[in-house]
C-alpha cells in the first residue's frame, strides 16, 4: 500500500492549451528535452531541417506545422512521473481538446507575449473553468518584441476573469531578452543563448548584487529593481489553495524557442500542481489512492502507425494500480476482459508496460468495443464515471466515394474516424453507408478526413458542402421521427448509434418544428 501511495503521489498529469501558433508544441518538446526524453529539440516549423516536433505524429501535422490530434507523452523529471496531454492547437479541433481536458488534473495555458489573450484561449479557458482545474500561465515568445508585462497581466485578469500572480518577471524582450527574475528565490536568472536545441546555461544573481549590472546591463538592472519593488508592494500574497481551486493563475514569462525560463517554470509548476485528483462517478467521488482500479476512455485513435493498422483506446487511470493482463470490467459492455499489451506513448512511439498508476495515461488495443467516455474498473466494484458530452457540429457535407468498388474501405474508414470523435457521420433512415452526411466543428476537419481516407484507407472521396447549420438530438417525440412536421429544408438523420436527429438550416426552422410538434424535445449535445 505504501508503494501505491508513493507512486500515485509522484504523478502529474496536465494538458497544454493555447491559441494556434502561441508555441504550445514547442514548449511541450522543451519539457521533454529537460526531462531527458529527447536529446535534441526539432523545430516545429523549420524549413531547413527535416526534423518535426516529436508530439506531432500525423503527416498532415508535419506539413502544416500544427497539432490536429492530442498526443500523449510521458517522462520523468525531478522525482516526478509526468504525463503531458498535448492538445490540438487549431480551433477546429476544440472538441478533442475538451475531451483531453477531462483527463487532465491541471492545465498550462500558453500565451503569445506580443498578442496576449486570443479567441481560442478564451474558449479553452472556459472549459478549464467548467472543470475547476488549476490553470498555470506561460507567457511565451519573450525572445520577440512583446507587450508590456503589466498590460498582459491586466488583460488576462480582465478577459478571463481569473486573478494572476507573477512567479517570475521578464527582463527585456526581443534581442534584448536577458532572462527572468525568480520572485520566490529573489534572484535574477540570466541565460546563455544557444540555438534552442539543447538546454541553456543559467547564471543567477540577487537584485542587490553589485555584479547585476555587469550581468544584464546597468539600465536593465535599474529597471528590474524598480519592478521588484512595485511587484512586492502591489501584488497579493500567493495562495496555493486558490491556485488549486482554479481561482488564481501563477504566471511565468519565458521563451520556449530559446529555452529561456523553461526549466525554472517546469520546476515550479511540478511543485505547485496537484497529484491525481478525485473523480466523480455514479457513487460519488473516487479516491485516486483507492486500491481498486478504475479508468475511463477519453480518446480513440486509429492508424497511429501505418505498420500496425490498429486502433488504440487511450485511458486515464483514475484510481489504484493497473497490471498487465489483469481482469477488468468494461462497464458499458457489461463484460469482463483482460487488457493485453497496454502501452505508454511518446507521440507515435510505443512501449509495452507491466504496470501503471492513477494519473497515468495508457493505450490499449481496441477491437472496436470501446467508445469515448466508457468506464473500465475492477470487477469487484462496478462504477460508472460521468460521460463525456458530444457537441453538435456546425458544418456539414455530403460525402461519397469516387470508386464504388471501395465501398468496404469507405465504410470502415468513415466509421473508424467517427468513433475517434474527429467527425460525426449521419445517414438518412433506411439508407446504407454508401453515401453519408459528415458533420464537423471546424472545416479543417474535412481536409483531415479527406487526407486520412486517401492515405490510410486508399479511398478518394467527393465532398459536397450542405447548407445546414444546426443539429439537434431528438430526446422525446410525439410521433415517429419520419412523421414529424418539419420544413422542407429540414432533414431527419440517424447517427452511427442509430439515434434520430434533425438537421436545420437556421434557428427559425428549429422553433417552427418545436411549435408544430407538441411534446417534441431536442438537445444540443448527446451523452
Automatic annotation (TrEMBL):
Q: Which UniProt keywords apply?
A: Cytoplasm, GTP-binding, Nucleotide-binding, Protein biosynthesis
Q: Does the keyword S-adenosyl-L-methionine apply?
A: no
What family is this?
Belongs to the TRAFAC class translation factor GTPase superfamily. Classic translation factor GTPase family. PrfC subfamily.
Main localization, broad class: cytoplasm
For this protein, the record's InterPro entries field holds: EF-G-like_DII (IPR053905), EFG_III/V (IPR035647), G_TR_CS (IPR031157), P-loop_NTPase (IPR027417), PrfC (IPR004548), RF3_C (IPR032090), RF3_dom_3_sf (IPR038467), RF3_GTP-bd (IPR041732)
Q: Which PROSITE patterns match?
A: G_TR_1, G_TR_2
Q: Where in the cell is it found?
A: Cytoplasm
Specify which residues bind GTP according to the UniProt entry for this protein. 18-25, 86-90, 140-143
Gene source species: Yanshouia hominis
What's this protein's name? Answer: Peptide chain release factor 3
Annotated function: Increases the formation of ribosomal termination complexes and stimulates activities of RF-1 and RF-2. It binds guanine nucleotides and has strong preference for UGA stop codons. It may interact directly with the ribosome. The stimulation of RF-1 and RF-2 is significantly reduced by GTP and GDP, but not by GMP.
Question: Can you give the residue ranges of the Tr-type G domain?
Answer: 9-277
Q: Which domain of life is it from?
A: Bacteria
Amino acid at each position: 500500500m505504501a508503494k501505491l501511495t508513493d507512486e500515485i503521489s509522484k504523478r502529474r498529469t496536465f494538458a497544454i492549451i493555447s491559441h494556434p501558433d502561441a508555441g504550445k508544441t514547442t514548449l511541450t518538446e522543451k519539457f521533454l528535452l529537460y526531462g531527458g526524453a529527447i536529446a535534441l529539440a526539432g523545430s516545429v516549423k523549420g524549413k531547413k531541417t527535416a526534423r518535426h516536433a516529436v508530439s506531432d505524429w500525423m503527416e498532415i501535422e508535419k506539413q502544416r506545422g500544427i497539432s490536429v490530434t492530442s498526443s500523449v507523452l510521458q517522462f520523468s523529471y525531478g522525482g516526478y512521473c509526468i504525463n503531458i496531454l498535448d492538445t490540438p492547437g487549431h480551433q477546429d479541433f476544440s472538441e478533442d481538446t475538451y475531451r483531453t481536458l477531462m483527463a487532465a488534473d491541471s492545465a498550462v495555458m500558453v500565451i503569445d507575449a506580443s498578442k496576449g489573450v486570443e479567441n481560442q484561449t478564451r474558449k479553452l479557458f472556459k472549459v478549464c473553468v467548467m472543470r475547476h482545474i488549476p490553470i498555470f500561465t506561460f507567457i511565451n515568445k519573450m525572445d520577440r518584441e512583446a507587450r508590456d508585462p503589466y498590460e498582459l497581466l491586466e488583460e488576462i485578469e480582465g478577459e478571463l476573469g481569473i486573478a494572476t500572480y507573477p512567479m517570475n518577471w521578464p527582463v527585456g524582450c526581443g534581442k534584448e531578452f536577458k532572462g527572468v527574475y525568480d520572485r520566490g528565490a529573489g534572484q535574477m536568472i540570466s541565460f546563455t543563448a544557444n540555438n534552442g536545441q539543447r538546454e541553456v546555461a543559467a547564471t543567477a544573481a540577487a537584485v542587490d548584487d553589485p555584479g547585476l549590472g555587469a550581468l544584464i546591463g546597468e539600465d536593465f538592472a535599474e529597471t528590474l529593481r524598480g519592478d521588484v519593488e512595485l511587484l512586492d508592494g502591489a501584488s497579493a500574497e500567493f495562495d496555493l489553495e486558490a491556485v488549486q481551486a482554479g481561482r488564481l493563475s501563477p504566471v511565468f514569462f519565458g521563451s520556449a524557442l530559446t529555452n529561456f525560463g523553461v526549466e525554472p517554470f517546469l520546476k515550479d509548476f511540478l511543485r505547485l500542481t496537484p497529484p491525481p485528483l478525485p473523480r466523480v462517478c455514479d457513487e460519488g467521488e473516487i479516491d485516486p489512492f483507492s486500491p481498486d482500479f478504475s479508468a475511463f476512455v477519453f480518446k480513440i485513435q486509429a492508424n497511429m502507425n501505418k505498420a500496425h493498422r490498429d486502433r488504440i483506446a487511450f485511458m486515464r487511470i483514475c484510481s489504484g494500480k493497473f497490471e498487465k493482463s489483469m481482469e477488468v470490467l468494461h462497464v458499458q459492455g457489461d463484460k469482463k476482459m483482460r487488457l493485453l499489451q497496454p502501452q505508454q506513448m511518446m507521440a507515435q512511439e510505443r512501449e509495452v508496460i507491466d504496470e501503471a498508476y492513477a494519473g497515468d495515461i495508457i493505450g490499449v488495443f481496441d477491437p472496436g468495443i470501446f467508445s469515448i467516455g466508457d468506464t473500465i474498473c475492477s470487477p469487484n466494484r462496478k462504477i460508472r464515471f460521468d460521460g463525456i458530452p458530444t457537441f453538435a457540429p456546425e458544418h456539414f457535407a455530403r460525402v461519397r466515394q469516387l470508386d464504388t468498388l471501395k465501398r468496404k474501405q469507405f465504410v470502415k474508414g468513415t466509421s473508424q474516424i467517427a468513433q475517434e470523435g474527429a467527425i460525426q457521420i449521419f445517414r438518412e433512415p433506411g439508407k446504407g453507408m454508401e453515401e453519408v452526411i459528415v458533420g464537423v466543428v471546424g472545416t479543417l476537419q474535412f481536409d483531415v478526413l479527406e487526407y486520412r481516407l486517401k492515405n490510410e484507407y486508399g479511398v478518394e472521396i467527393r465532398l459536397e458542402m450542405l447548407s445546414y447549420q444546426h443539429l439537434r438530438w431528438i430526446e422525446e417525440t410525439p410521433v415517429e421521427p419520419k412523421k414529424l412536421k418539419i420544413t422542407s429544408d429540414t432533414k431527419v438523420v440517424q447517427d452511427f448509434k442509430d439515434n434520430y436527429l434533425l438537421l436545420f438550416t437556421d434557428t427559425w426552422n428549429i422553433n417552427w418544428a418545436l411549435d408544430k410538434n407538441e411534446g417534441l424535445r431536442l438537445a444540443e449535445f448527446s451523452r
